[in-house]
Amino acid sequence: MGVELYLIFAVAILFLGLYCILTKKSIIKSAIGISIMVKGGSLSFLVAGGATAQVAVVLIIVIDAIIAAVLLSMAVNVYKHTGSLDFEALKRLWG
Questions:
Q1: Which of 5, 35, 45, 60 is paired with 70 by a 20 to 30 Å CA distance?
Q2: Could you give the CA distance from residue 1 to residue 45 in angstroms, rounded to a whole number?
């Protein structure tokens, strides 16, 4: 019964991140939603496998940290040019 509970929890975390991405208009909140989705996927990997899954999860965590750093640097750059962190501000940058 424990594995099913963890998988349900992983799917719930995945959908929570998807909800955050689809409903929020801020770049920072969407970046947090992406990070939450990655955590849900990592949990499902851990539930599914043994030692190779643990290696995959460590790799996923490293990649997630890199993606978060890039997204946050892009958010700082958008804020510097537009004064806002909304996705609508990105449309103004296109010209």
A1: 45
A2: 17
The CATH number given to whatever domain includes residue 16 is: 1.10.287.3510
Q: Which of 57, 45, 56, 15 is nearest to 33 (CA)?
A: 15
26 phi, psi to nearest 5 deg:
-90, 145
93 contacts: CB under 8 Å, gap ≥ 6: 78, 81, 82
- This model's pTM is above 0.90: no
Buried b (16+ CB within 10 A) or exposed e, 16-34: ebeebbeebeebeebbbbb
Burial of 70 (0-12, 13-18, 19+ CB in 10 A): exposed
Looking at the structure of the chain, the number of domains it has is 1
pLDDT tens digit sequence for 16-36? 999 999 998 888 888 899 999
Q: Give the domain extent around 83.
A: 2-93
